[in-house]
Design goal:
The protein contains 40 helices and 28 strands. Helix 35 runs antiparallel to helix 37 and helix 37 (about 885-925) runs antiparallel to helix 39. Strands 15, 16, 17, 18, 19, 20, 23 and 24 form an eight-stranded mixed beta sheet that branches. It starts with a strand and ends with a helix. A hairpin with a 2-residue loop joins strand 1 (about 1-15) and strand 2 (about 15-30). It is α/β, with parallel strands linked by helices. It is rod-shaped.
Amino acid sequence: MLSLKDIKKDYVVGDSTVSALKGVSIDFRENEFVSILGPSGCGKTTLLNIIGGLDRYTSGDLNINGKSTKDFKDCDWDSYRNHSIGFVFQSYNLIPHQTVLSNVELALTLSGVSKSERRERAVKALEQVGLGDQLHKKPNQMSGGQMQRVAIARALVNEPDILLADEPTGALDTETSVQIMELLKSISKDKLIIMVTHNPELAMKYSSRIIKLLDGKVIDDSDPLDKNVVEPIKKPEKEPTKADKKAAKKERKKLKTSMSFLTALSLSRNNLMTKKARTLLTSFAGSIGIIGIALILSISNGVQLYIDQVQSDTLSSYPLQITKTTASIGEIMNTMAKKHEDSANHDKDKVYSQNAMGEMINTLMEETKVNNLEKFKKYLDDNSDLKDLTSDVQYTYATTLNVFTESDSGVMQVNPSTLLEDMGYMSSTQTEAMSMSGSMGSMMGMGTNVWSEMIDNEELIDKQYDVIAGRLPEKYNEVVLVVDKNNEINDYVLYSLGLLDPSSLNGIVRRALAGENISVDSEQHVYTYDELLDLKFKVVPTPDFYKKKDGVWEDMTGDESYMKKAVANGTEISVVGILRPDEDASSASISGAIGYRHDLMTYLIDEVDNSEIVKEQKANPDIDVFTGLKFKTDEATSDTDSSSETVPDSTADTESNADKTADSSDTDKQAGLVAGDSSMKIPEGMTEEQYKALMEQSGASDTGELADMGMNAMGSMDMSAIQGGDMSSLTETQKKYIASLSDEQMELMKQMLKEQSDTNADQLANSGKYSTSNYDNNMKTLGYSVVEDPDSINIYPVDFASKEKIIDIIDDYNNSVGEEDKIEYTDYVGLMMSSITSIINAISYVLIAFVAISLVVSSIMIGIITYISVLERTKEIGILRSIGASKKDISRVFNAETVIVGFVAGALGMIISYLLTIPINMIIAHLTDVPIRASIPVSAAVILIAISVCLTLIAGLFPSRVAAKKDPVIALRTE
């Protein structure tokens, strides 16, 4: 079973070599009780340690079950100690911070035995030595004899072949010594027990064989194996096959010892719990760096959240704007500056003029670009990444939102607002320019309109506004009223909406400049929510402002009665909610006092597209529907210029007179037909008999009388009103005349009017005169738009990072299209703000770098504390190695300890940091009005704890390596 052949052991001490064993050769039986006697220093314990695999022999060989150990590696010796050897030491060598049961289970843990089986076998071993009722006691709660019994139970629990006892009774009284020896003797019946002792009496009484050592040599063996017995000659072993090698390798792997990380954590945790105060102070010291970084991150995160909110709010007000016609202000300024520098190349002996105006106009023309928004819109609609980068993509159109209010005194235009013009503050051209300034006007606080389209992002609106009454609009004909944070409405808005009488401000600026004494209503008016929610408006499409007369369309905005009817027939708009900006919102997405949905504009676009005037203009793209004249083309322009040089002015007068004569003749003809003059041409589609019968119904004595009556009645009659069935504009005489006509006569009159209208249109179109307008201008005047071709595109990025990605998307588009389709855009936010986030991050990184120094210092300190722990637990290292723990297992134990300390330090740091954010936020709130709330993100907390664990683990690598390299024999001698 076990055979020692010429074992020698030398120790190098300084420059000298000490021989502890000098060629010891002993053969042991499988089950016997062997006592090794000898004086101190004779090599007894050294021999025991070599047999147990704790120490290595210098020369010779140790055979185990016929197998040499000369080629054993560390893992083989570890497995040998764990599975074949059980140690019983004089000083018990129990781990003090582990319970009795845990001490016994430890060897089984290294063997990879399951938890349930481990517990069952440990309990059985303790019951075998009479300690079945002492399972959960700590070693310091037991007597010496009981602790030795625990040590024996630990040695037996793995069912080893050999039990090595080093002075097992050396620290016990006589009675207890007898009990221990009796126990060992009973065990020796089926195991080999090798005991080292100084007590010859005990050896003689209980041992079956006594071996005496002196000066490292065996001087006596009471019962050696019989040397005269000739052992049978063994047949030479066959060369092992691949299957044999594979099976042997599998067996070695199975016997290989390994301590799980959970076991290492358990050992280290129990050890740290015995030194709670020191562990807590060490962890607190390690947490200081974590606290510093966490607090910096909390403030940085609070600032970043505030910046993100400002970004989101700001970008909802100042989007990336792409207009159909655009010019880069920066490029214009750079180009003008360069041209000015290039032109200044003359002498300075005189004063020279500078062509600033010409250069400005030329540069403006050069830098002004028309964007193909129809193509770009399709590109944006097809881009799947855009949705995550934007709060909304808003398409605006040239269609004017005409809003009116109705009252007993008449109708008032609410949008576009004419209040400043009526006050005499600016001209209509200036007012129109400001109302069309879009988001730039809103940004500069210069917008004149109080109606603005809401961003199509209800989540963002919920963040920016509180609904204080009613609800958000859900339909195209619903709007919201926006008040300020004090629940107040600017009186400009009240006048514009008609809540205050705007007529009281008419000409007030001019009168004030003229020195008149004027007074403005300065009383604070109060409105209930219900009063404001009862507000109603009317939206009127621009084409409804025009009425067809004599073949052309006339602007009727100056006709009060007509406008009343047009407004009455408009689409009713209701105020369904009142919004107030959220206190923490730094900006607002609704620039006006009235916010409407995008689908109101799409509804209006459809209404305009379906109007009669727009249909007529689209059907006749060469004719101006407002004048009936043809649009001037390039060819017509050259012809006109040529004829003006050859035709005298009198020709034009003659043509004009001819036109008047033709008009008079046509009117007489119409009257004659209606009066029943048989000499007149019979209308197309009517027989002569039908025509005569129709004349007889008139009641006139003759056709002349009827003609006179018709002429008198039709003299100032609105023919287009008759065509449309509108009789309200007719005089009483005209109404009486119309009432006297039969249905056939009425249809005849309408037919004549249509023919006359067509004739007039043809005469105007072929008169040789041309309209001063063009097709595009007319369609724009009528508010015509195509949904697929917006007038401008407003892209609202989620944040600045998203804005940069959107710019990349625009750049990708520009790179994929030709020069004529490239997009120019205006980035208002980019003009106002830049690098804010980068600055905040840079400051945070610098502060974190400073605080990280303390984190590194605390990690080094933890490494020192771990090294101290290695020194304190040196004996534990020896115990673990004696029961089969490998060097890696020892490293794992101390790595587990640093992991625990690092985790506690990180967790403690985060708890303290979270508590400190409370007074920090109170101080920030007291000192500033900025809504910054220091907060530590959960992800950052997890990362900081992980960093703490990693740093302490790195700091503990050196101490754990030192622990692994410790000699187990020397470690066991350490007190």
